[in-house]
């Protein structure tokens, strides 16, 4: 935020509580709404903020404040280690791929584990979800998939 609004006054805020990834968007959206801005949690866990251009800086400051007050638990912010990446690869190449295929998504062949690890969090990263955009599914179906077939399973975060 400092780069976008170098002159913006950032209020002093304290952590209210840490949240898990499933409650983050809803908690921040509620905080934004309480601050006078329209926001809602999306089914995929993302936050949608409705703002007009005149209120952009104030909205961004409120969002920053809410994110400081309700940060994600640390396990969600640490980079994955090798064991976590291996577990994620196993999940995405089996359970997730099958779940998406049963929903009508044609999933491309996965790379090797070595390539998966090397390209994780790069533009070359493989995920079965990359094929969802090319599928014939509508937005409502895609939103349902994010719950029925999560891209990142909770057990991967708990391996440390």
Helix content estimate: 40-55%
Number of domains: 2
Spatial arrangement of strands, main beta sheet: 1-2
SSE arrangement, N to C: HEEHHHHH
Task: List its salient traits.
160 residues; mainly alpha; 2 domains; two-stranded antiparallel sheet; 6 helices; 42% helix; globular
Can you walk me through this structure?
The protein is mainly alpha-helical. The chain has two domains: 1-75, no CATH class; 82-157, no CATH class. 42% of the residues lie in helices and 5% in strands. The protein has a two-stranded antiparallel ribbon. Strand 1 (38-41) and strand 2 (47-50) form a beta hairpin. Helix 1 crosses helix 2. The mean pLDDT is 92.
Topology (SSEs and partners):
Layout: H1 24-34, E1 38-41, E2 47-50, H2 56-69, H3 82-102, H4 113-119, H5 139-148, H6 154-157
Antiparallel strand pairs: 1-2
Give a short summary of the structure.
The chain contains 6 helices and 2 strands.
